[in-house]
Amino acid sequence: MELLSKLNSPFLYLVCGGIVLLVAVICIVFAVRAYRMGKALGVDESKMKRVITASATFAVLPSVGILLGVIALSGSLGTPWPWLRLSVIGALHYETQVAEAASEAVGAGSLSIANMTPEAFATIALLMSFCIIWGMVLMIFNGKAYTKRLSGQTPAKKNEADGKKNKSSLSGFADTAMTAMFIGLVTAYIASYIGTIVSGNGVLSMTGNWLSLAVSVVAAIAMAVFLWIREKTKADWVDSFSVAGSMLIAMSAAVFLAGLAG
User: Fold this and answer.
1) CA distance 189 to 182
2) Are 199 and 205 in contact (CB under 8 A)?
């Protein structure tokens, strides 16, 4: 617990909080400039205010999932670091998976404060930061060209049909690549859960990591229900709540199942 107190020290709060504050100020500056530009272009102010209100309202739902991620990681990594990672450029699914993988790689086992050491935390924090910087780095060199391709702006020798085809194929590849990546990650984790509850002779053992597998099934069912509701009701707002809702249901199931097992 001494390490956890250091990870929650005022110094770390000051450093991480200062970075979060800087990003918040940048967001405010861009929001003000965008509003002024809208007025200069003659956009109806009442429409802009409705957009701002709607955006702020719907932003609350995804932020619930982010808050849950901070809470989940704070028990092993302290509060300032997860707060910084998930407030600036991190993603909920990325941070938790990389932190878990890094913890196992350094020999700390599952991600918990009981197994955490200063060396393990430094490695986890470094890996969480290093693996996600490449989007920013690559955008410095090819961001302009990539934006043109997304908007269908191809060289002069290409006709309009080629531009539309290029844009469609690029977007389709990006969607397929992201889907394939997440399917691979989910498959790897589920396979590891199954592996821990199956003994060498193929017999199920309840001493393994069965709780994680059960919670994964509950989360998958919850997400399927949210997707079904969205398809039936055509309510786009369900997408913003589906991740946070699935996490809350899965966490509740984990507590319930752990209580039954205990």
Assistant:
1) 11
2) yes
